[in-house]
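Hi V.,

You were right to ask for the full record rather than a summary. Here it is.
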Amino acid sequence: MNKLYPTTSNSVTKDFVCFSHLRWNFVYQRPQHLLSRFAKHFRVFFVEEPIFHESTNNLQVTLSEENVWIIVPHLNNNLSEEEKIDTQKDLLNKLFRNLEIESYLFWYYTPMALAISDHFEPELVIYDCMDELAAFKFAPPQLRLLEAKLFQKADLIFTGGHSLYEVKKALHANIFAFPSSIEKEHFSLARQVSSDPADQQPIPHPRIGFFGVIDERMNIDLIAKIAQQKPNWHFVMIGPVVKIDPADLPRLHNIHYLGGKTYKELPAYLAGWEIAMIPFALNESTQFISPTKTPEYLSAGKPVISTSITDVVNPYGINKMVAIADTPEEFISCIEDELSKPDKSKWLEKVDEFLSDNSWDNTWKKMLHQIIATYNRKHIANQNTKEQVYV
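Predicted structure:
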């Protein structure tokens, strides 16, 4: 039987073709963690959204250090919307022929990619719904309609958190919640690092830090008010600024914007903080998010203070592993409480026990199990249909 398994001598290997709104070399997060693991067993192609220029249309094809093929369409600025879609279809058709992509699965992060991929015939369609993208700033107006279409087309759906699963579960019969995980070995390095990165060294203590994308989800007013009231506390902000004007960010002597850092660099910065924070606004764009940084901060051994994001409150807040605060006064009180604790060993034991089974390897294996099961059920059903036709 033509089953799906990771590469073995007795199996048929499938190619994974992923369509993403995120760029591979932007911030290392859920897509990179998962697809780099698939790339150890399958060919993986990561198709990004186009980059526009003044030259001819082409595909930039590169192989990442994780063995993932990065596919970036470069399109001429003067194309109409219809021409942009048709050109990407043509470029992908040529790519599939040239690289002999013949037996493949489609993995979507963005429903917008249906416009350029709907003419293919994948053996399985997977939608990893990591966020409620339609609620994000600058989301295309047609995104909700295309997501509904993708839900109909998909054989299997994953969600990036439990709250997102709760609002999506009635829309599909084969849907599973897979909150983002951690690489404990990587972030636990923060417990051992003793030297500060050069750009963080001059910043006085105590330090309260954040890493991640700085965008419309950030409650910049909250950070500004806390920093104003506590001028001797220093707030370290690590990450690229997108979808908001950098000029709108609070510029106080105790707020330090260090820019984006690589995934490998993060533990060294974390090591130098007293507290980590998740100062997200409570709005439409954060209603269903499940911040990966929560378990990453905890794995580094850092106390965490977060606004009341649903997937942080449950399970981390209700289990007393993360302090929840929404106002400047509540945040200040929680920070003061954490700074005054002489011994965090019992809290850390509880955290480590809670996170003991949390890993990207385990998440990937569980996802793969669902993919294999879904593929084999679909293949058996197709075989039975063919046999009925020929009876």
